[in-house]
Write a structure and sequence with these properties.
The chain has 11 helices and 8 strands. The chain is α/β, with parallel strands linked by helices. It has one domain: Rossmann fold (3-Layer(aba) Sandwich), CATH 3.40.50. The chain has an 8-stranded mixed beta sheet with strand order 1-2-4-3-5-6-7-8, with helices on both faces. Helix 4 links the parallel strand 3 and strand 4. The radius of gyration is 18 Å and the shape is globular. The N terminus is likely disordered.
């Protein structure tokens, strides 16, 4: 084991030894999408799929053994805005649904660069409206969340909701969210990064932004964060997004928004996805579920 291996969390060090620093770029994008597409060949009988008028779709997971109105969670998958599917998170959404007694709507948003901003955000916004209109959903207990680019979209959605004066979610659950296009230019030493590095980040943001002004899109660029939904942010110390996420949390708090932060020492980007059985990954999920459960039980709304 090398010195750098020892700097990773003990639950993740062995896995980190075999993982690349980054996987997505213009050359690798077609191959990664082709491999991801193979997962669509499988079918999950207990997940309902619906098309969105915007062009995206959703996967609806209903909790087992519950009656009456239940909370709702809008979940947004990761993939740097350019890869990924809602189906990749079916197991996670089933776990959220059963553990929280919540209906989970996971968004298959359109991907960049073919569909740059605002198309993916429009899909997420329409999916939230669909969630609010589902039978059995308590519209006073809605949360939004996502991982990586999905966390970035959740943060963007929270901002759009506030700007348009729409009902505020009880929580924005931001799992190592992709919030700041400027991070790629200041990534520095990438020795301990895994799965997502500066070049991947630059490619993802360029694809997503298209011709849009990042000042209007990237949550970290927005000047006014007041009035947003309460937040939970989780990120590892070996994640490219570590510092940008902590900075965003600080700005949320300065703007009067309650924000809990979970920092995982020695964890890299997407660690809980590539090593879900690791004790640290299970604990990371437990913290997310606890934050959602607390929000759903909060009568302040």
């Amino acid at each position: 084991m090398t010195l750098h291996d020892q700097e990773f969390h003990p639950d993740l060090a062995r896995m980190a030894h075999f993982l690349p620093r980054g996987i997505v770029g213009p050359r690798t994008l077609p191959t990664i999408r082709a491999l991801t597409g193979l997962t669509r060949l499988s079918r999950n009988a207990d997940v309902e799929v619906r098309r969105l008028d915007s062009g995206g779709s959703v996967r609806i997971t209903t909790p087992r053994g519950t009656t009456g109105d239940v909370p709702g969670l809008l979940w947004i998958h990761g993939g740097g805005y350019v890869i990924g599917t809602a189906q990749q998170d079916d197991a996670l959404c089933r776990r959220f649904a059963d553990d929280l007694g919540a209906i989970v709507v996971s968004v298959d948003y359109r991907l960049a660069p073919e569909h740059p901003f605002p198309a993916p955000l429009d899909d997420c916004h329409e999916a939230l409206s669909l969630l609010r209109g589902l039978p059995g959903v308590d519209t006073d207990r809605i949360a939004i969340g996502g991982a990586s680019a999905g966390g970035g979209l959740a943060a963007q959605l929270a901002l759009r909701i506030r700007d348009r004066g729409e009902p505020r979610p009880m929580l924005q659950l931001l799992v190592y969210p992709m919030l700041d296009d400027r991070t790629a230019a200041a990534s520095g030493d990438e020795t301990n990064l895994r799965m997502w590095h500066g070049k991947s980040n630059r490619f993802g943001w360029d694809a997503y932004l298209g011709g849009a002004d990042p000042v209007d899109v990237a949550p970290a660029r927005r000047a006014d964060l007041a009035g947003l939904a309460d937040a939970w942010i989780g990120v590892g110390t070996h994640d490219l997004f570590h510092l940008e996420d902590l900075a965003y949390a600080d700005r949320l708090r300065a703007a009067g928004v309650d924000c809990d932060v979970e920092v995982v020492d020695g964890a890299f980007h997407g660690f809980d996805l590539v090593s879900p059985a690791a004790p640290i990954s299970r604990e990371f999920y437990r913290r997310q579920a606890a934050a959602l459960r607390s929000a759903f039980c909060d009568e302040k709304g």
